Amino acid sequence: MAASDSPSAALRRRDLCSRGIRLAGKMRSDVVDLLDTYVERQGLDASASVVAVEGVPAAAVERWDEQTGTQRLLENLAAYRAFRALLAQMLEEQREQLGEADAALGRALAAVLLQVSAFAYHLEELLRLESHGPPSEEGASPPPPSHLSLFEKKLRGLGVLRELAQWAVRSARDLRQIAKPSLGSSSAPSLAESP
Amino acid sequence: DSHIQYERVGADVTMKCGSMDWDAAVTWTANGTDIDESHLNGSYLILKNVDLTQSGQYSCYEGSSWHLKYQTYLRVGTPPKEPVLMCRSNNYPKGFYCSWHLPTPTYIPNSFNISVIHGTREMVCEKDAFPKNRCHIRYLQLFSTVKYKVTLTVTNALGKNSTTLTFDEVAIVKPDPPESVVAKPVPNNPRRLEVSWQNPSSWPDPESFPLKFFLRYRPLILDQWQHVELSDGTSHTITDAYAGKEYIIQVAAKDNDIGTWSDWSVAVHATPWTEEPKHLTTEAQVTETTSASTSSFMPPPTTKICDKGAVVGS
Amino acid sequence: QNLKCITHNLHKMICTWDVSSKGRHGQTDFCYTTNDLPPPVCFKTKEKRVEILVPESSTTVTVTTNSVSGTAIATKEFEIHKKDVSFVPLTPRIFSLTPDFATSTLNLKWSDNGSVFPYGLDAIWQIQILRKEAMEKVTQVNYYSKLTHEDIILSWNWTSDMPLECTSHYVKLRCYINVTQFAGPKDWSDWSPVEEIPGKDSEPNGSGVFPQDTVVAVGSDVTICCVHEEGQQIQRMTYGPEIYPMIHLSRRSSAIRVLNASASDSSGTNAVCILSEDEMEGTVLFVGYAPDIPQNLSCETSNFLIVKCTWKPGRPSGLYGKRRTKYSLFERVSGKNVSCEDNEMSREHVCGFPVLADQKTYDFILGVSNPIGQTESSLLVDLIERVRPKTPEKVTVLGNSSTSVRLHWFINGSFAEIRLLCQIEISSGHSERKLHNVSVPGGKFSTYTAQLNTLHPYTKYQFRVRCSAADHFWKWSGWSRIEEHTTLEA
């Protein structure tokens, strides 16, 4: 399943990875800022712990260092597609609940949504370097939450942003792993085998 | 019968002479020394408002036969106060360690029990041989938003206390300071100093988990530090040094994405390169100038780190 | 012994008596005579009670107790006077008890059993509301009604100071009928059986914080409760940033009382119930103001197609999104209603209402409402007195001589029903500006024209124009763009 590892493909992958790492870093700092704004604007307690929220991809992973490059990209892409839908949902709820009242929070949400979409596209680009490319989008969007109260929606939003912040860190780490030149080989490890 | 008896500082202690009656004639000794009759109530030994110095071995002998009827080892101490607990990951993403101490001594043996809960899962905290009050936990999961809850319980014969820490995985990531910090003048550049260092050896995978660094430097004659943050690489050239002034330089490290800054590295000193004086008269002068400008030689490790001219910190 | 007679309906009475232990198991011969019924009426009964007519004045009763074998054990005679008979209304029967959780209101319906009594009796109904596991009395209210010889279903509402979900509410009532012409003692009926509205704390998985996502007025006192599972313990309850003392309601429910609630942020104020470190429930309270009466309501038309009304909203309600204050424009003459698109953040609000054929006068009512209250403002407008044309466009200047020009301009709108007064400002170089007024018949999306004479030859002029209604001046339109023109040489 490994990509044809021509030097140009390896160079293209490394370029995509390093740009992806920078995008992930920027996204993370924006998400962390958004989290602070969100917590403050929604009157939440920053230390509140939120139980795992249905439909929100958890960044937590076991034996992370044993994942192949393809696994990393596929898991990342699935997550960011889900976050794209979740953030769009949050934006819609924000408009419904607050109208124009909190335009700043709305803009910050929209900006992060844009970055998440860009990052998802970036991952698709990386997967295109592989033979079978990115999976199709059907059925990717998370199930609409059963009726949630407003407070539950607020907590859900907090859960979404926290997971997204962790995913941004994980993505940077994943891309660094993928970008690592494998030991002794001239070209970078094909995605399937990277450690 | 002989055993250990624990009592709080300030307590009043009454010791019976084993099975001897109250009115039996007995003799009490403390660490082998007879105890004055004033401390006796019949055959009972009464110790009021005991203090630490009264810890020791207390024995009771039957008056006539001098048979040992009762012996105890009195340990005077205090119940434990709330312990101070700290958890930190200096080898992320391998794991983290927790260490603890008591704010005040109890003077009697204490036992520590630590529990680490992550979500619904209890994790093993493997005790380190040294230092004793420390154990380490291996991360089973990375990038988790679920908080870790560490509870340390300290128990001794006089009481029990505990403390709990709740933290996020990312919050406790704090690398050790950078190592092997070296600062060298740059020949023919009176305002430059070249500083280099290494990732802390405890940091397991700098490639996947790159560190960024914070350099601070100042001439000894000034108190105000200058700072520069470096997002990659382990060297930096200071280009605005005051000519001829000795500098003190330190470096700190932080994971590129998460956690907090390490402590500052050991300080190193260096003085920028200076022009050779034109009128050379005596050889001494030359030697003296040379040693002043090229203090980048490696001092023997036993040299006290902050000695003038010592440039390598490890 | 102790023969007592009670009537529930002033017509028949129920007499009861005690019997010595010997006669407890045997039958009783019960005979009674009233002064208007000489021969005694007798019957046997095993019960210790009989129902007989209420005497006009008095009745003599003979009670003979027999043993199980039927032999008479004891006989006693009683004289019962009408004034000895107690009147106790029948125990009322609750017809229905319906909760409205949205408004925390209980609606009680019961039958007044009026058919039993003659007309016009005054009845007092004592209604008790009880709450919590211990069924503590919350309130007791007297409700007055008049019996009308028919069974009427009476209805009464009560709004609880806490959400009905918080804990079970119970209602019971009793009745007292003031029969002035009844000589005997009168007493309250027995209490009706208790009717319960179970709270969420008696539902298996009814946990939650209540009221859920509600809107209250600034200054209200609000009770917020936390219903949790059996065995769980509430660590603390917070409202906004503050921890509040808890009021125990039941094993599974506790509440806090927020007094004089202050206005909340746009996202509402969170009320959180912390059950353990990582388990919490919550609700969001939106505390705002009822809508203010709109100020400076003003309506005008710029094109005889749309009437544009503007107003100042007054004090912001503090409610946003779907809870925001909404406006609608109702026109009384046509009966037409238009809801207004508005943005709660803008200082001035605007709403458009279609100009209706053949309608000159518009009787507007601007309706304003939000979840806390509603109000309105009204304005009667004669449309032709409220014309402010759109800014003239496509101004062109045609010069056909050295001292005169012809100005053309277009106005978007339909002014066929009125005359327009247009003002042309003429300025050139350093000379003083002149205004030239011209009255033109209004047209439908027309271009208008005016001739300007007595100009100086070979001179550069700037022209701009504005218009208004000629007959009933209301406001000038905006000035058009400036159009430059140099007159021909002489």
From TrEMBL, chain A:
<comment type="function">
    <text>CNTF is a survival factor for various neuronal cell types. Seems to prevent the degeneration of motor axons after axotomy.</text>
</comment>
<protein>
    <recommendedName>
        <fullName>Ciliary neurotrophic factor</fullName>
    </recommendedName>
</protein>
<dbReference type="GO" id="GO:0005127">
    <property type="term" value="F:ciliary neurotrophic factor receptor binding"/>
</dbReference>
<keyword id="KW-0524">Neurogenesis</keyword>
<keyword id="KW-0339">Growth factor</keyword>
<keyword id="KW-0963">Cytoplasm</keyword>
<keyword id="KW-0221">Differentiation</keyword>
<dbReference type="GO" id="GO:0005615">
    <property type="term" value="C:extracellular space"/>
</dbReference>
<dbReference type="GO" id="GO:0048143">
    <property type="term" value="P:astrocyte activation"/>
</dbReference>
<dbReference type="GO" id="GO:0070120">
    <property type="term" value="P:ciliary neurotrophic factor-mediated signaling pathway"/>
</dbReference>
<dbReference type="Pfam" id="PF01110">
    <property type="entry name" value="CNTF"/>
</dbReference>
<dbReference type="InterPro" id="IPR009079">
    <property type="entry name" value="4_helix_cytokine-like_core"/>
</dbReference>
<dbReference type="GO" id="GO:0005737">
    <property type="term" value="C:cytoplasm"/>
</dbReference>
<dbReference type="GO" id="GO:0043524">
    <property type="term" value="P:negative regulation of neuron apoptotic process"/>
</dbReference>
<dbReference type="GO" id="GO:0048680">
    <property type="term" value="P:positive regulation of axon regeneration"/>
</dbReference>
<dbReference type="GO" id="GO:0030424">
    <property type="term" value="C:axon"/>
</dbReference>
<dbReference type="GO" id="GO:0008083">
    <property type="term" value="F:growth factor activity"/>
</dbReference>
<dbReference type="GO" id="GO:0005125">
    <property type="term" value="F:cytokine activity"/>
</dbReference>
<keyword id="KW-0217">Developmental protein</keyword>
<dbReference type="InterPro" id="IPR000151">
    <property type="entry name" value="Ciliary_neurotrophic_fac_CNTF"/>
</dbReference>
<comment type="similarity">
    <text>Belongs to the CNTF family.</text>
</comment>
